[in-house]
Design a protein that fits this description.
Elements: H1 3-7, H2 12-22, H3 30-42, E1 51-57, E2 67-73, H4 94-97, H5 109-114, E3 116-117, H6 119-124, H7 127-138, H8 145-164, H9 167-173, H10 177-191
Parallel strand pairs: 1-3
Antiparallel strand pairs: 1-2
Helix pairs in contact: 2-3, 2-7
Length: 192
């Protein structure tokens, strides 16, 4: 079942209830979610290899309780990623053999509609909850397809700039990830 198939089986009232229950802080945006819901019904899905899945996760040190998040999978294993060699893992490690998890937040909405929903997700969650999670993720960066497109294009432009930056410029203008993570850990310790 694709997201396009699923959305055509659900009434807005059920999705609205699921959004209110799962994302109470977003109740003020229900009219925006409804507009997106109606727009999706008019769109033509595009083909996608990606599968939509909901997983329960926990970020150690950041979250007190587990939470559910939308992820994408397309049968790519972690060891098949271009940057796998930099992750410090052996090619036959459990991590290497796991299916890669992708963020779907900046995917075009017509691609979302063409994605299949993982069978485990369909078994574990009611259709209205699946769609509520999808709508929340789809609109994380904005409530219009154009906003999502503009952010995605801006990110591509920034990546291209980084790719063309000299090593000297990188040393002067960029902060190593280790320093960023240490600053975040320090901030978390201060907040606790």
């Amino acid at each position: 079942m694709t997201l396009n198939d699923l959305i055509r089986t659900i009434d807005w009232v059920d999705v609205k209830a699921a959004l209110s229950w799962l994302f109470p802080d977003d109740r003020k945006s229900l009219a925006d979610f409804r507009r997106v819901f109606l727009q999706l019904l008019l769109m033509t899905p595009s083909s996608s290899r990606m599968r939509i899945s909901i997983r329960t996760t926990f970020r150690e040190g950041l979250d007190d309780t587990p939470f559910q998040e939308i992820i994408g999978r397309n049968s790519t294993l972690n060891r098949d990623l271009d940057d796998f060699e930099y992750l410090g893992q052996l090619p036959d490690s459990p991590f290497a053999l796991e299916e890669t998890v992708f963020s779907l937040a900046l995917e075009p909405w017509d691609s979302w509609l063409g994605m299949h929903i993982d069978a485990d997700t369909i078994r574990q969650f009611p259709p209205s909850h699946i769609l509520a999670h999808c709508l929340s993720e789809m609109t994380f960066h904005g409530f219009t397809h154009q906003e999502i497109h503009d952010i995605r294009e801006d990110l591509k432009k920034r990546v291209a700039e980084l790719d063309t930056m000299s090593e000297e410029d990188k040393k002067q203008k960029l902060i190593p990830s280790e320093q960023v993570f240490e600053r975040l850990r320090s901030k978390l310790r201060e907040d606790l």
